[in-house]
Amino acid sequence: MTDLCENEIYAKKIALIEVGRRCFETGLQNNSGGNLSVRLACAPAIIIKPSGVGFNECSVDNLMVSDLDGRTLRGAGKPSKDLDFHVELYRIRSDVEAIVHVHSPWATGWACAGMQLDCITVQARQKLGLLPLIPLSENGGPQGATEVGAVMANPAINAALMENHGTIGVGKDLRQAVYVVELIEETAHIAFVKSALNSFGCCAD
Length: 205
Ligand SMILES: [Zn+2]
Description:
By secondary structure, this protein is an alpha+beta fold. It has one domain (3-199): L-fuculose-1-phosphate Aldolase (3-Layer(aba) Sandwich). It has 6 helices and 8 strands, in the order αββββαβααβαββα. It has helices at residues 3-25, 83-92, 105-113, 122-127, 145-152, 174-199; strands spanning 35-39, 45-48, 64-67, 72-74, 98-102, 133-134, 159-162, 166-171. The protein has an 8-stranded mixed β-sheet with strand order 4-3-2-1-5-8-7-6, sandwiched between helices. Strand 6 (133-134), helix 5 (145-152) and strand 7 (159-162) form a beta-alpha-beta unit. Helix 2 (83-92) packs parallel to helix 5 (145-152) and helix 3 crosses helix 6 (174-199). It is globular. The structure holds zinc ion. Zinc ion binds next to loops.
């Protein structure tokens, strides 16, 4: 890769490390679950967190570079099991430059209940829009490229819940993608409080 590419890889690794730390510190992702990635402009490739590395443990040395077929170009780690749906989204959505996938607790609670999370606040309505629930794979396992691709091929969809699993946000950069998962989590929390208050009969629905 060219010097220009080296500069871009370094800068985007730093951006990814910062977003990973932010997700960890704000409780959106504990331990080594979830994943985040960013597209390179200088080559048909992405930077992605490897499997078994926490969001707060990402470093310039352990982040991996993969091509859009999921082949490792750089990095000694084990490719994430989420790699297939990340590369699928970059292949089918030319507008997607970054992906953040987390198991944030409030939103994942809704996803485990199999419930539609309505965008009840004005912010969520404006910025999330549609918020579909991506079903589990046919064999009941975690969502892969087929399930995520089928729902998120629609360019109007930048945010989704993943049944029994978590959430996913995409954007034109990592900052925008992390805003999406933060807003999904905030919306799930607010929706839970609203439903609890409504169940007490103290408020108009
Ligand atoms: Zn996950």
